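As a representative case, the lines below give one protein's residues and fold tokens.
***
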Amino acid sequence: MSRAPYAGNVEIFKARTSKIFAWICWAVAVFGVVVALVAAGPRSLPGTTPLLFVAFLGWLLFWRPVVVVRDSGVALENPFRTIDVPWDAWCRLIPAMPSRW
């Protein structure tokens, strides 16, 4: 993900496995479209819409979610909403947590 939409000191974290799952979704969609084109020709393209939807869901659910650490706090960005947690909230939360160390 590009750092362009974020200002200041920013660290962006993504799960490596989610990228693998996204690539798998895209590969399944491409394979299905190619098989449909080879088997039935161009007239089969409207029937590949569910495969394109699988590719879109792979991008939406696996590629987009990130955790963004900024100077102002932590943001959890998923496909449906963004949750911003300022550092003040973390400072109030951490002393309330029991620690074994």
Observations:
- The beta strands are 10-13, 66-70, 73-77, 82-86.
- The chain is about 50% helix and 20% strand.
- The chain has a mean pLDDT of 85.
- The first strand starts at residue 10 and ends at 13.
